[in-house]
Request: fold
Amino acid sequence: MGVLLVIRVKAFVATLVIAASALPASTSVAQVPSDPTGLLASENVTLLTSLPNPGIIGARFRDGFMYTTSVAGLTVYDVSDPAAPAEVSRLPLPHFENEDVDLGGNILLISNDAAESTGILHVIDISDPGAPALLTSFQMGGNPISGGPGHTVSCMLDCRFAWVTDISGIRVIDLADPSQPVDKGIFESPAYGEAATHDVQVDGNGLAWVVGFGGAVAYKLPKGYTGDGLGKIVAQTDERGLSTYFEELGIGDGSNPNDFILHNSYRTRNSGVVYITEEDYTRPGCKGAGSFETWKVPVYKKGPKKGMPTGEQVTLLDQWATELNVAGAASPAAMCSAHYFDVRGKVVAQGWYEQGTRFLDVSNPADVRQIGYFVPPNSLNWAAYFPPTDPTGSIVYSFDASHGIDVLKLSLPGGKVRNAPTVKAAIRPEWFAESTVGTPTDLYGFACRLGLAGDLGLDEDTDPDLPPLPLP
Reply:
């Protein structure tokens, strides 16, 4: 299966799950033991409230406001009270799938993925959070057959430039005049790995980390950066960061740090560790389907370059996966991979698609452990965020595309992550259920019965050989 096809399969499955959220919950949820609501949550995680916003994907924060994207457009929330976000405004802008919305200055960027239709960069004026306004929709090209730009877009230098992932590298867009973007071209990156780049995050030292099939690569922009290139490579994952997808086609044991693609990253200022999501939804079961990873970044310990990478290779410290991704399943949930995460202190809140939000202790980056979880039924958790307006660092926004934003509170004994016990989440029985997709029925084989004869304007007596369809 080609990479672009695999990505489109992900989008198709995600769309099906989002659409299914409007339907009654599956009766299989009632089979979960000891909890008739179907909610799996550790004792230290409390649901404070839920905000309806089906199809929600990502967010950025600024000046007490949260800017969120969904398949329907942009929604702005006032998060001055982090426990009770209040909707301020909406800008209808259907698109798919700007996974990682970004902003800088008074500009917010949303991209449309060429793998779904064509690459488009939407530039939005957010100078008034109560009335966001579309400045332009810049056509970047591409199509679902050959792919192209737009899966993610990231701000560089306070949105003076936009870096858009575009298969072999990064497409740089000059936003000196945000209403008149200028395409500077595509610049290849080793993170491409003969397949695709996925996202860009700027770390605490101002380095731009590009992740993809080829691992993670950090760039330092030169002074007076003009958008002509990506800058100088100052750090890069070793050979373990390279994807093994083309060697195994998703049927290996899933133990490699990059079985499919490195998805996103996070590094604080001067840190010797970078956190990375490995995304993998290509295998027949959930075993090895994605992980949260810690990687060692050799940095200068003193002098004018203190905290900057030395240029030595970035090496793996630890991988953490959910209970299901360790046990595996013959017929897994539709999406069982890790996805976007956020960090506050030594706690990571990780979105994990149908396996909800997982809270991880990264105090020892060589020994990551789970200290909490929140797994609602029929979940499709795209991301999790710590609102910067919460001084306690205990509130988390869980972005569930099936229904909206769950506002959670994580309680730690004495307020210390080290005091929190290691916990394990139960595995839902329905995650092991045999799938009926593509399975012939006893009565009709691979054919589908269209309906009752009466529904087709026929007399039931004229078609006596057809067995009656069961009524719901």
About this structure: The CA atoms of residues 37 and 65 lie 32 Å apart. The domain at 3-441 is CATH 2.130.10.10 (Methylamine Dehydrogenase; Chain H).
